[in-house]
Protein 1
Amino acid sequence: VQLVESGGGLAQPGGSLRLSCAASGFNFSSYVMSWYRQAPGQARELVATINTSDGSNTNYAASVKGRFTISRENAKNMAYLQMNGLKPENTAVYYCRAAVAWDEYWGQGALVTVSS
């Protein structure tokens, strides 16, 4: 089982980044996919969640709603987080998570730094 994040890096305030999460080793389409983040010295927090089927049901933290978009491609075992209008306070390690009622998997994280 693997979840591998990619696409992190340095962005300027107001800029964009797209995180990808490649899944393998489990039935991806049956798992709810989420993105979390953890800033230095802070607890890990939920950023966005997308349901299993057609991905039509999404939820976002209030701080990112309207700027971030979560999506998934079940045929490719991929999940994404499009981040627009980035702010310095969005600097964090971003993790993808796959979950069902009885199981969960986490990726290793991707560092996003927003700075001028």
Protein 2
Amino acid sequence: QVQLVESGGGLVQPGGSLRLSCAASGGIFRSCDMGWYRQAPGKQRELVAVITVGGTTNYADSVKGRFTISRDNAKNTVDLQMNSLKPEDTAVYYCNAKHRVFNSNYWGQGTQVTVSS
């Protein structure tokens, strides 16, 4: 079992930056691919970025060059650095953990990011 707690959301002006953090408990963090997803009102949840157990990263086209995902296996955390934010980045951002062997999926409660002037 993995419990995920996100933090770092808030209100930011267009062009600004935010850093989201996700703290994982449960002891299997190192066996999980970690990802950030987002869901805007009236839209489906979509993948933003993922970092594998081995450190390989992948990003949605809409955030490439602006967002950076990183993980710290010693601290059991995964961060999402978001720069050059746009109004269309406004959404609830969710942390996700997917176990490599058992294929089990875990979600955090979400954190709101609002980009507005």
